Amino acid sequence: MKLRSFSRFLIIIMTLCVADLSHAHRFYASFSQIDMQSEKGTIEITHRLFTHDIEDLLIRYQGGAGELDDDVIEKFLQNYIIQAFAIYNPEGESIPLNWIAIEVTLNDIFVYQEAPLEKNQQTLIIANRILMDLFEDQSNTVNLKLDGKVKSYTFHKDSELYQISFSGRTGNVPLN
Amino acid sequence: MLKIKPVLFGILGGVLFTIAVNAQTIEQANDKFRQLNEYLPTSNVYRTASGAPGHQYWQQQADYKIDVTLNDDNQTLTGSATITYYNNSPDALKYIWMQMDQNRFESKSMDQLSRVTPKNTTEMTMERFRKHVEEQVFDGGYKVTALTDSGGAALSSTTVGSMMRIDLPTPLAAGQRTEFTINWWYNIPDARKFKLSRQGYEHFPDDNNKIYEIAQWYPRVTAYSDYEGWHNKEYQGSGEFTLEFGDYDVTITAPADHIVASTGVLQNDAEVLTPAQRDRLIEARTASEPMFIVTPDEAVANQSSRSSETKSWHYKAETVRDFAFAASRKFIWDAMGYRMKENGKTVMAMSYYPMAGQPLWSDISTQAVMHTLQVYNKYSLTYPYPVALSINGPIGGMEYPMISFNGARPTIHDDGTRTYGRATKHGLIGVIIHEVGHNYYPMIINSDERQWTWMDEGMNTFVQNLAHQEWKDDYPLGRIDPRNIVNYMTSTNQVPIMSNAESVIQKGNNAYAKPATAFNILRESILGKELFDFAFREFAQRWKFKRPTPADFFRTMEDASGVDLDWFWRGWFYTTDHVDMSLDNVRHFTINTQDPDVEEAFKRRKEMEKRTHPSYFSNDELPKRIDEFPTIKDFYNDNDEFTVTNKLRNKYHELIAGLEDWQIEMLNNNSNIYMLDFSNVGGLLMPLYVEVEYEDGTKEEHRLPAEIWKLNYEHVTKMIVTDKKIASVVLDPKYETADTDMHNNFYPRRIVESRFDLVKEKARDRRDMLKENAEEVKSLEDYKKEEADKDAENKEKSVENFKKYLEETR
Lengths: 176, 810
Prior knowledge:
The complex is a heterodimer of chains A (176) and B (810). Chain A has helices spanning 3-14, 51-62, 70-84, and strands at 29-37, 42-50, 85-88, 98-104, 108-116, 123-128, 139-146, 149-155, 161-165, 171-173. Chain A is of the alpha+beta class and 176 residues long. In chain A, strands 4-5-2-1-7-8 form a six-stranded mixed sheet. In chain A, β7 and β8 (149-155) form a beta hairpin. With 810 residues, chain B is of the alpha+beta class. In chain B, the strands form eight sheets. Chain B has a seven-stranded mixed sheet. The longest helix of chain B has 30 residues, at 780-809. Chain B starts with a strand and ends with a helix. The chains are: A alpha+beta (176), B alpha+beta (810). Chains A and B meet through α1, β1, β2, α2 and β4 of A and α2, β25, α7, α10 and α11 of B.
């Protein structure tokens, strides 16, 4: 996915935002683990999302579908995640993500994606807008892991692209 | 000195002969097992060092007599309260601080003014912008119209944000009480327009009705405690409430066609309920399943009613820390008496919900309320109140004494049908158990929510999950499974659990999941169920209707279990360390018997094992000179360096002669000795749960306490003596300790299938072979070319787009 289409998507989803449903015991949070597996030469990505949030999202975009089976959820998420989450190399080239699978449990949905890891790659630029189209207060924490070291960043609605590096600069990549 | 000899050299960490623990200077300040002295307050007559209320424990009391009118036409609430304040403290009070929590919805409140916008904001959604605008234009907050003493004389007051100071004409002496009256009104906020509103109304445009969920609706006396004095932290939305207990006598006047559900017991049912409703209520008290008090049909009929009359619902509640209610024409109402086996008393479990909640609510809600009481009574204390309510309205999940607001509903489709997903259903069960469970934590065990979110949320989430386990067999562990917290535990942008409620980041993981997981680990692994349940219940018993602090909890858990847990509280509650323990090496030894006939043969075997290079064998076939000229052979040709000489044997016999029988027995012990080397990579100390598998296939578990790290919390070695030979060793095989990296937990190392790997494997198995087979076969060259073209094209596009993108946004 390209940055440009990503930004276009943001404009579209922003017009769809719904009011904040004051759910005191919903956390408006997701957690993504990005493991840069230098031995395997892969980037393994696991998003942990609340099942309830994804059901709301599905209803929002597809209308109520009654009992939602895993295939319906997977098909939807395949389209959704690719528009809401992306990684780029430091040159700004998007790194295509292979869809692996989802795993649905009562409380959580785990989404698995994978990408090749370039040799000696120690830096990623990350965009994460998951569920921000639905919830104003959504915050998405990302752990980036390389050789046992972890760096984290939490994305909010107004977050820019964020670069995490184990050898260079870690910080915002301005959108403007 | 007994000597041991290595049998198998370690294959992981190289050869190590040092057995002794790596001694090094550890300063007391770095000792992870030192007591929590610098964190916990010195005990006193109010709070003991054992974590119990002290012999002079005191707390204030405030009783409220309130008349309140809900105006459905303009969504306002008007009240008059006479408050009796009992000064049980040893201090004279010159003034009384009130909590005016509605003031958070004033446009100039600290909550509004302290909200931040990210530096780089250049666009904002219409919705969000509207919210900003509405927050500014909404005329929120209390309008106090009168404040008088018991004689009717005006009292002077000063408002400071969400606090108001009432100056007393004469100081209120210790042990004295005072009475004053406040009149006020406020605009009820639209619950969905404010972040974390926790109360407010919901409008249903189809039938032009509202559901009101009313809370933080009257000026409440600010808590005054032995450890904080007046609790003067401003209400900003996240830090909930710190309150005093008292008795309430409340008369709620609402449109005559509204059903009013409230904290407390209805006193005038003859005046506000129909004869049919009263009969049903009596029947429901002993019914075997929930019964409708207001049926769905009656609720639908009520919706189109527009009464100009009002009715006053009179409720009383004793020893509650707060009071809330809900009102609507839309309410369906069901009820069932739950007879508690602990004391034979019956609690009325009741649910109020609109048609929008059906068919889910009538099936689940009241059952979930009763289930909560059943399980929490076991782990905490016997529910002391006469009713327990679950209300469906605009608030997703919020708790008050005896009453809870729970938001989950089925989805309504265009054709009017309603369906719900399994997450909605289980989400509703979970949220009702959670919110009703809050009756115990913090409504009765009255912790200080404004300071500590984890005390009520963490403990409640923990017991909630125990309740899930008793709802059905295969309810997933969710937020208390140590495996699920590991990614959060490694994240670098976290704060300790012991952070103020307003300053907690990643709240769900920090204040709910992590403490709940910590309690689960204490219960299942470190203390065991029996000890943990005893101590956890002891905490509830000691502090019911009192105000515990974190120190009281930490101390009680140790006091009642008899186990020093300071290291555990320190690691899990005061730091952001994570668990990563490693099994570095397993080394095998046997006893050196000193018998030259045994030992020299052993040395020879070891020497021969070293001779692996081909040149030791490749020349074996060639003729040897000594075979051609046998006369040059001597003693050394028949005997190698390991041959046992008589001198060696005599020396051995001399040694044996000087030993006692038990020492000889030791020498002849033919056990296998294993040295297990562990290191603590993550920092957070945990016990070592070690599963050993022997060559004969049997397994043995060694559960070594965390105190194994007491002298050195980086590296330790544990010796295992056994008749058998070890085939493999696993550290924490049941994933009990929230170990964030399992790769270093196996000896010999094995490839650990990560969750990712397993899912990938499964996804591969799920393939559709028919579809795969229908694909045309491409030649390898075609394929390579195609790939290369695609790559080139993608790369080009991508760079181009990125440049364009940067230009566009610059």
